[in-house]
Write a structure and sequence with these properties.
Blueprint (H helix, E strand, L loop, with lengths): L1 H11 L9 H8 L8 H12 L7 E2 H6 L12 H14 L6 E2 L1 H8 L6 H13 L6
Helix pairs in contact: 1-2, 3-6
């Protein structure tokens, strides 16, 4: 954890004075919101999901990040869909695993409006009668 925090701190510390300004500290806490911090987000995601530490995310590691099988129960349909998504869209080069650039495209898609999606999600959840 200390190594991870040090890497994040060093990247956030844009003037390299060893201290963080308020804005730099915000970048440290929320690296996904700062362009210069996105490499850290990718690295941390890869470290978290890559259980065998080979530097890649396999389909089993990808699924394992979202779903843990329960003995005696069939795998939910959405898991099969996610496996297909991995093969079709996530694994861009077809080698059966995601490298750093493929992880970047997965977690930081350029054509995805995070704010709009969150607003729609909040409205859906707040709509008690589900009319609109």
């Amino acid at each position: 954890m200390l190594e991870r925090d040090r890497r994040r701190w060093d990247r956030a510390d844009q003037n390299q004075d060893g201290r963080l300004t308020k804005d730099e500290y915000t970048d440290f806490l929320h690296p996904e919101e700062a362009t210069h911090m996105l490499d850290v987000v990718v690295t941390e995601t890869l470290e978290d999901v890559d259980k065998d530490k080979d530097g890649f995310v396999s389909v089993d590691e990808y699924i394992g990040d979202m779903y843990q099988p329960v003995e005696g129960q069939a795998e939910p349909e959405w898991v099969a869909t996610e496996r297909e998504q991995f093969a079709t869209f996530r694994d861009k080069d077809g080698d059966g695993k995601m490298g750093a650039e493929e992880v970047r495209q997965w977690i930081l898609p350029e054509d995805y409006d995070h704010s709009g999606a969150e607003a729609k999600h909040l409205l859906f959840e707040a709509d008690a009668n589900k009319v609109n």
